[in-house]
């Protein structure tokens, strides 16, 4: 996609996070997982006058049978057809493949995440720096990860291993990579909390922010109590500015459809019109609720005027 053709309100992650931190809310980074569910995410953002991030990860692209180009095309088509006016970021979440990052940038994504967190620190720094140089040259923001964030369903990540982010390593990592946002491991996990319960190490977040100005990202936002998240957002010197929400959206969709098993993207797109609208309404309500009661970003779109 030609950068010149992007709507002016499709912004970089860096700009979105700067405004979030300045005004004390967090951007919801919503993963619709199915292309037909991009629409309700955008509608909810527009109705609540909230900035939003629409994202999909490398593993989700594979699991649901979508290409970066297909996801990008649907996103921009819905931005136009719905006359979406609030600020929105199109973000590639957890990705280890440089080729996928390049395809996403070609498809109009304004932000990408390189996840080399399972590598030794030196290698993570080198890989992340390479992506930062490539993306920044094309006007695209970069998120990276330091420490290992656990998981319960393996849709977004490969391992259920957890290693909390070391603040001193974060200081060095940010200084040597120039990354725009950092996903940190501080107690949350991807997926549905069943046996393990969510927690947030606020002191660790404070320590990281005392050593680096980088914007912090909380992955595994689905299922975390709202009060816990708001406390992380409102930490002195700036807290979490981006919260990833994926599982809650899919659970809302499946419950509305009376299903338990995930679909492929093709299956979802081929639902009858009534079922599709039923699912979209459930996703829209979920996103609007998160914006209003979880992230504090309702009416945050006004800050970009």
UniProtKB/TrEMBL annotation:
Cofactor dependence: Zn(2+)
SUPFAM superfamilies: Aldolase
Family matches, as InterPro entries: Aldolase_TIM, Class_II_FBP_aldolase, FBA_II
Family matches, as CDD domains: TBP_aldolase_IIB
Pfam family, one: F_bP_aldolase
Protein name, UniProt field: Ketose-bisphosphate aldolase
